[in-house]
Design a protein that fits this description.
About 35% of the residues lie in helices and about 5% in strands. With about 150 residues, the protein is mostly helical. Bound molecules: iron/sulfur cluster. Iron/sulfur cluster binds next to loops.
């Protein structure tokens, strides 16, 4: 039967290689989103020409390239590529695995990406462009998973 899943979800080595490309060419990161990462976000402020608080809200989870459709989540759950852990990437500093945070497919870089990371190519998604200003997340804290 034909597999309609993207290659990065099917093959771990493809997912890994594309991660390295995205890190090199689009500064995918940060390595550990739970840290302040002041320099990382400072670079994004300059690149995007926005305040720090705005830059810190531009995450994969609200990027226009972030595909978390049921089909893609199924591909990640069942494909070998979906088993790639950020901590397996051959980079320094080592990347942190963020427990409990969902991965989805980045259609820009063809990777499984963590919700709390970002890259230079972040684009607003449709709901972000169309929703009322009041409904937008206003800080990084607003986007963190809530405790039960
Ligand atoms: S293009 Fe968007 S979804 Fe893909 S890595 Fe960059 S910020 Fe994340």
């Amino acid at each position: 039967m034909e597999n309609h899943c993207p290659v990065e979800a099917q093959y771990k080595e493809v997912n890994l290689a594309n991660h390295l490309l995205a890190i090199k060419l689009a500064n995918l990161g940060p390595a550990d989103p739970r840290q302040p990462n002041t320099l990382y976000w400072g670079d994004k402020m300059v690149l995007w020409g926005v305040e720090e608080g705005v830059a810190r809200t531009r995450l994969c989870m609200n990027c226009g390239y972030y595909d978390k459709s049921p089909e893609m989540l199924e591909c990640i759950a069942t494909g070998e590529g979906g088993t790639l852990k950020p901590s397996e990437l051959p980079v320094e500093p080592k990347w942190a695995d963020i427990q409990g945070m969902p991965s989805a497919i980045c259609t820009r870089w063809n990777i499984t990406c963590s919700a709390l990371r970002t890259c230079d190519d972040w684009e607003p998604c449709e709901w972000e462009e169309s929703e009322e200003e009041d409904n937008k997340p206003t800080s990084y804290v607003d986007m963190m998973p809530k405790e039960d």
